[in-house]
């Protein structure tokens, strides 16, 4: 059984330096994921989700802030240490099954290829057939990828991500190009892996059905944590500097600059906006 890895980020900032201008993709992300959690990352297009996944996997380095994965400080690790981490303990599934697969190799050969770096240091790697069987696609183990359905391809990409029994799987939109049945199957297998092997799973999704299925979701907005969900219920999260980001659906009603007051009422707070100096009560 793999042991799930924790994730902790503190004040994570990432700036892309492009010709002519800089883009701040993340501007202060504090995120905690417990070992063995199954968590969704939500947020509008361009909000920084893929950037966060790449940073957690150590694909590139943050401009500022710290990242811990398990006992490793990813933000301070050497390239060699990061290579070792990705070869055995952390898997990043890129969006689009094909980007994770060798096109001319069978599913079983793809899994074996993904194990080659870990084989030098680890002896207890699962057999490719065992992994494909766990994911319900043993019957396609030796078929060419060209003959597989989109769902089977995505499950093959998942088998590749699980090839070394990592403690953390980062999956960027693993269900986005699938029909409903294949989507539900991939989701169900991810949840099974999480339950059975204790693997920490973080997945990016735009799909409300997937979000509702997940016990916890975190929403990124404008490069920051903008909210959290618990089984479909949305919460705003107070940030380290005491700010409270508005849930997305309130942003039009309460544009920047709106004055609001907090009224304590029977153990909870009412948020009262003032428009043009007149209390909106
Ligand atoms: N290589 C890059 N160079 C410059 N800017 C980039 C690069 N990659 C991403 N960005 C910018 O960084 C911001 C965050 O992008 P990112 O891809 O992380 O968002 P996302 O939430 O994953 O979006 P999507 O849901 O569309 O995949 C965007 O403004 C994007 O244009």
How would you explain this protein's 3D organization?
- This is ABC-type lipoprotein export system ATPase subunit.
- One of its GO terms (cellular component) is plasma membrane.
- GO terms for molecular function: ATP binding; ATP hydrolysis activity; transmembrane transporter activity.
- This protein has 281 residues and is of the alpha/beta class.
- It has two domains: 7-246, Rossmann fold (3-Layer(aba) Sandwich), CATH 3.40.50; 251-281, no CATH class.
- It has helices at 49-56, 79-88, 107-114, 116-119, 128-134, 150-161, 180-197, 208-213; strands at 7-18, 21-33, 38-42, 64-69, 72-73, 90-93, 168-172, 200-204, 216-221, 224-230, 233-235, 259-265, 268-275, 278-279.
- 38% of the residues are buried.
- Adenosine-5'-triphosphate (ATP) is lined by residues 16, 18, 23, 25, 43, 45-51.
Task: Provide the residue-averaged pLDDT.
Answer: 91
| Largest sheet geometry | 7 strands, mixed
> What is the terminal separation in angstroms?
57 Å
CATH topology of the largest domain: Rossmann fold
Tell me the name of the CATH homologous superfamily of the largest domain: P-loop containing nucleotide triphosphate hydrolases
Which sequence of strands runs across the widest sheet? 6-7-8-3-9-10-11
What is this structure, in a nutshell?
By secondary structure, the protein is of the alpha/beta class.
